[in-house]
């Protein structure tokens, strides 16, 4: 396992912010950590990254306890924060070459060749620009490139596509899928973009009030809640709408009775957002 967390607890003074958090992640898995603000996501990630000491529990990241990890271990992980420090006077290529040089002593496959990395994040045409001249979306791509430059085995992504237009977001999703599938990079994603989590994640953890309240694939989570399907159709000139807990037998019976007379059929099932809100609100209430 790339990540093993057992009984993780964190206390600030008299306040517990993480309660017996446990989960695992394997090589090449994309794991999304979802939760409202204040749920404990950032604290969890900081402990995994080795930037915060835990109060109790067992944590192993790439076979090492992050609390005592060395620089060689750090070279094996990548971090994409919500914003990077400003290097406005650096040119994009120069900055990536400079960052990459820190990884060279830790393996022949590190760092990622700059030309390949620029192409992967869509910054080839901007390689000679100074960072301060980049647009917001381009700066975000540079943040991602800095996180990837060491060719990490484990990548932490915090709201990675903030500022991306739809085309850039799709390209980034393809990049993440390729990293996981082709290079077996394990990816831990935190995001408030639930469609993004549903598209990218193999598994989702929902954390609220310091506890994991649900875990599973996007499909597992959406089918775990009891919520009606919205079925809409027309027969002739008449429109119909029904709220049905299981739409499949209803639709089968509908076609068995009316056949081709059924037109404009729409079936809306619960989404990941519906499941997320039901689970989080259930705990908070």
UniProtKB/TrEMBL annotation:
SMART domains per the UniProt record, alphabetical: AAA
Annotated GO biological process: response to antibiotic
Annotated compartments: Cell membrane
Chief place where the protein resides: membrane
Molecular function, one GO term: ATP hydrolysis activity
InterPro entries: AAA+_ATPase, ABC_transporter-like_ATP-bd, ABC_transporter-like_CS, ABC_transporter_ATP-binding, P-loop_NTPase
Membrane topology annotation: Peripheral membrane protein
Superkingdom of this protein's organism: Bacteria
A single cellular component GO annotation: plasma membrane
Residues in ABC transporter domain copies: 3-234
Presence of keyword RNA-binding: no
Gene3D superfamilies (alphabetical): P-loop containing nucleotide triphosphate hydrolases
Keywords: Antibiotic resistance, ATP-binding, Nucleotide-binding, Transport
UniProt family annotation: Belongs to the ABC transporter superfamily.
Protein name: ABC transporter ATP-binding protein
Organism annotation: Kribbella sandramycini
């Amino acid at each position: 396992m790339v990540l093993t967390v057992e009984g993780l607890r964190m206390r600030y003074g008299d306040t517990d912010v993480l309660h017996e958090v446990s989960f695992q992640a394997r090589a090449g898995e994309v794991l999304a950590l979802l939760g409202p603000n204040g749920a404990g996501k950032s604290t969890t990630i900081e402990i995994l990254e080795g930037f915060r000491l835990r109060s109790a529990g067992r944590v192993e990241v790439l076979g090492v306890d992050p609390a005592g990890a060395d620089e060689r271990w750090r070279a094996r992980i990548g971090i994409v924060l919500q914003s990077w420090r400003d290097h406005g006077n650096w040119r994009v290529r120069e900055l990536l070459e400079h960052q990459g040089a820190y990884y060279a002593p830790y393996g022949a496959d590190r760092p990622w060749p700059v030309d390949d990395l620029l192409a992967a994040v869509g910054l080839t045409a901007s390689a000679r620009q100074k960072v301060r001249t980049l647009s917001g979306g381009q700066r975000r791509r540079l943040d991602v490139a800095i996180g990837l430059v060491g060719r990490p085995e484990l990548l932490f992504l915090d709201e990675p596509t903030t500022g991306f237009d739809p085309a850039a977001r799709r390209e980034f999703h393809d990049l993440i899928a390729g990293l996981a599938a082709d290079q077996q990079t394990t990816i831990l994603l935190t995001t408030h973009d639930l469609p993004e989590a549903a598209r990218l994640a193999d598994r989702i953890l929902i954390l609220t009030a310091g506890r994991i309240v649900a875990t599973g694939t996007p499909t597992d989570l959406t089918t775990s809640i009891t919520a009606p399907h919205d079925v809409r159709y027309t027969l002739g000139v008449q429109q119909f709408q029904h709220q049905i807990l299981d739409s499949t037998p209803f639709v089968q019976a509908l076609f068995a009775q009316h056949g081709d007379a059924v037109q404009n059929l729409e079936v809306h099932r619960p989404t990941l957002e519906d499941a997320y809100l039901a689970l989080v609100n259930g705990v908070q209430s």
